[in-house]
Design a protein that fits this description.
229 residues, four-stranded antiparallel β-sheet, three-stranded antiparallel β-sheet, 7 helices, elongated
Amino acid sequence: MANPKTIAFRTYPKIIFAWPMAIAAFVAGGAMLVWPESLNRIGIVFMIVALLNLTVLAFEFSRAKAMTIMLGLLGLTSSLILLNQRYPIFRPLHTWLYSRQVNASPEFYFVLGGGFLAIFVGIIARSRFDYWTLTASELVHRRGFLGESERFSTSGLKIRKEITDVLEYLLLGAGRLVITVPGQQLPVVLENVLGSHRVEKFAEEVLDARLVRIEDNSVNDQRTGQAGR
């Protein structure tokens, strides 16, 4: 059983957030085998998922930006629905969209999904050799095949979580950790830490526990000194 007083966390490249596109590729390939007559619809759905996923990778969506975009899309959709009640714009749009030749073979989707899967396996394997661990007494950066490590005391250590992209947080709970280490000129900035909320919560618990132990030791020292007198 793992030590509950230790937590490991890792950083990942942004390509890890392309998992919806990878899943969509496998689903599209399977759907092509079952419904070959719907190749255009399957292709269009896959392209929509892929373009939305690529948008997440290309831009940072802060809380304010994400809210603005959501409200804008909601307003645009409502306006189009009201406009469609007077002018039938959805039917010709639907006809034009599904008349486009947006399709590929099942092999294309499976190869694309397999390529993503291989990349994800490589990323996860690399993260086994470059990661951080936190205990109540120390923060350790482990890296390399030979297990090189750099250790920092948690005395005065501060950890701040930042949600720089709301969509990435929704996809994998990812966030940025800014670690201020006493004695270091610059803070340690870790991008794309998955499960960042869990790491932050654990850090608060172990660092608070460390402070409690220091206070208890101080009280014990005072009691010992008074008894000696």
